[in-house]
Amino acid sequence: MYEMCVGPEKAGGALVWHVMAKQAAATLCGQRLRERIEASDGERARHCPDCMASFEKLMAATPC
Question: For residues 62 and 46, what is the distance between their CA atoms, to the nearest angstrom?
């Protein structure tokens, strides 16, 4: 299972939506989100392109 988490794109950067596996320590792009940010703070945030590319590969490799 995966979840979407709001966090900075890079340290101190704009907020983006990251993909994280449940119980994982880091997002699919390798970031460790230090603090939980409320989803409402990321309502208009874009998606992390690196997380989305990794997620797309994972979904393509997973049989239905």
Answer: 25
Q: Radius of gyration over alpha carbons of the chain, in Å?
A: 12
Calculated CA dihedral for residues 14, 50, 39, 12, nearest 10 degrees: -30
What are the backbone dihedrals phi and psi of residue 17, each rounded to the nearest 5 degrees, phi first? -90, 120
Give pLDDT tens digits for 41-64: 778 899 999 999 999 999 998 776
Specify the DSSP class assigned to residue 23. T
With contact defined as beta carbons under 8 Å apart, do 2 and 24 qualify? no
Tell me the H-state helices in the chain. 49-61
